[in-house]
Design a protein that fits this description.
By secondary structure, the chain is mainly alpha-helical. It contains five helices and no strands. The protein is globular and about 50 Å long.
């Protein structure tokens, strides 16, 4: 799997962080989908300099969605804590399946932005 090494590096780096992986309430489905995408883009940003800038934008977009849905919580910490609760196998499977969905969501957003921009003479 092409994200395999990156997933391991992300997981190892996050596990070495000072944050304890606290027991959490179950993550709502919408938050889970956004966390998967944020984690995927974090891996992409950390593995290939060619994708670093665009992946950072993708990660910021999904963290922003989480912040909008959960005001008052640090969503970056929440994301890292969630990643720390996942096994290596779970992370690998998530990275393998989230890519197409997350990419499609951002493509749809980009297309919508282009269409709206064009309607204003842009």
């Amino acid at each position: 799997m092409k994200y395999g090494i990156a997933a391991l590096a992300l997981a190892a780096g996050l596990m070495a962080s000072p944050m304890a992986a606290a027991a959490q309430d179950p993550v709502p489905a919408a938050d889970l989908r956004d966390m998967e995408c944020a984690a995927l883009f974090a891996v992409m940003a950390g593995t290939d300099p060619q994708y670093e800038a665009s992946a950072a934008i993708g990660m910021a977009y999904y963290v922003g969605r989480l912040e909008g849905r959960n005001p008052g919580q640090n969503q970056v910490v929440r994301l890292f804590e969630w990643v720390n609760t996942q096994s290596e196998d779970q992370l690998m499977a998530m990275l393998g399946t989230a890519g197409a969905r997350c990419g499609e969501e951002l493509q749809t957003l980009g297309n919508t932005m282009s269409e709206v921009g064009s309607s204003f003479g842009g």
